[in-house]
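Before surveying the methods themselves, let us examine one representative protein, pairing a chain with its fold in C-alpha cell form.
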Amino acid sequence: MAIQKVDYPLPDYFERTSKSLEWMKKAKEVMPGGVTANIKSFDPYPIVMEKGNGAHLTDVNGNEYIDYLLAYGALMLGHGHEKITEAITKQLHQNGTCLFGTPHELEYTFGKKIQQHYPSMELLRYTNSGTEATLLALRLAYAYTGKYKIAKFEGHYHGGYNEVLVSVSPPLNEAGEELNPNSVIESKGVPEKEAENTIILPFNELEACEAILRRHQHDLAAVMIEPVQGGFIPATEKFIKGLREITKELGILLIFDEVKTGFRVAIGGAQQLYNVKPDITALGKVIGGGFPIGIVGGREEIMLESSPRRGADVFDSSQSKKSKSKDVLFHSGTYNGHPMILAAGLATVEVLEEKIEDVFKNTAFLKQQLEQLFKRYKIGMKAIGIGSIFSVVLTNKENIRNYRDLQQTDLSLRKEIDLHLLNEGIYTKPLNRYSLSTAHGIKEIDATIKAYERVLSKVCGGHH
C-alpha cells in the first residue's frame, strides 16, 4: 500500500497542548530553550506533564497518555508505585534523615542484592547517574591499565561528557567507511583532541573491530559498549563473545554500559543473556526506582584502584602524606549511596524479582500485535528489542544490526506516526524506544493497538 501524503498533525497538536506551549514560552525566561536537559526537547515543542500514575501521564491541559517513555526507561514499576513510596517513607521514619553523609547499612544491603544478579561486580561504587557511572568506569580503566585512549561504538551513547560525545549520531557524510568509522565530535565545547583519543568501532562487525583494536592495542585502556545498542539493537552472540575474547587477549578492559539494559533485558542485564563477563559494568536508570543513581562494579583488582587505602586523595590535607594525590584514583560525591535512593532501588529490585517475566510477556504481546497491524496496512515494520524494551522500526530489511542500518529506515514516517500518536494519548518522545513497566497491562496494550489503528488509517488514507 502506497502511503498517501497527509497534513502534518500539528493543528490538533497545538489545540490539545495549548497550555504546554504557554508554559514553554515562560520556561524560556528561566532555562535556555525552556528545558533543563536537551533530551527533553522536541519539535514543535515538548508536552509539559502535571501528574503520573501507574502507566499513565496527565499533561497541563488535562490530556491523559499511556506512558511508554517512562523517563527513558527508568520507571520500570511505573509512576508512583506503592512499594517505592513505602520504602522511602520507612527509610525517612526509621533513620530520621534522608542523608547521612557517612557510611550506612543500606549501602551494604543494596550492594549485596546487586551482586546477586550481577556476579561480575565483585566490588562496586555508587554514583549519582548513569553518566557518572560510565565516567568512573573509564577513570578506573585508565588507572588500572596506564593507557589513556578508549574505543566506543558508532551510534552508542554513554553520557554527556567529552570522551564519549563522539560518533553518537554522526552525519553519514562525515562518518567515514562503514567498517572503519571516523571519530566525529558531536557537541560544541568538546575539544578536537577527543577525536584522537576516542576510537570508533563498527557494531556487530567482529573482523573489522578486531583489526582496529589490534592496530590501537598499545594505546587503548578499554572498549565501552552498549551490549544492546540504544537498548533495542542487540549484539549478535558471536560478536559479543568474540569481542570478549579479543579484548582479553589484547589486555584491553571490556566495559558493559548497562544503564539502559540493566534489569530491562533480563534481571541480570545483557551479561546474563549473553553469558559474558565484562571487566567493568555501569548501571543506572531502573535501579534507582525513579531517583538519580548509578553503580560501577567489576573485577576486585580493578575496583580496588578507587580504595582510599591506596593513599592520600585531594581532600587529605595532612602534613604527613605518604603519597601524592595524583597517585590515587579520586572518586567522591556527597550523594553517593543516598539512603533514600537505595531504599527505593531495593524495593524496585524486589518487585522485579517477582514481576519481571510478566513485563516481558506483555512486551512480547504488544510487539506481536503491532507487527500484525502494520502488516495489514502493508507497511514494513519490525518491533526490535529484547525483554521490556523495543523500538518501532519501519523497514523491510531482514536485520537491523547497527546505527547505519537504522539510518536507512523510514525515520520521517516514524516521526509522523509518533506525532499522531501523541494526539491519540500514546506517549513517547518521537523516534524514541518503547519501555514497559509492571503497570502496563492488557488494558493499556489494547488501547495502544486501537490508537495505532486510528493513526495508520489516517496515514494510509483510510485503506489497507
Remarks:
- Residues 84 and 410 are 39 Å apart (CA to CA).
- The longest helix spans residues 339-376.
- The chain has two domains: 10-80+356-459, 99-288+294-336.
- The domain at 99-288+294-336 is CATH 3.40.640.10 (Aspartate Aminotransferase; domain 2).
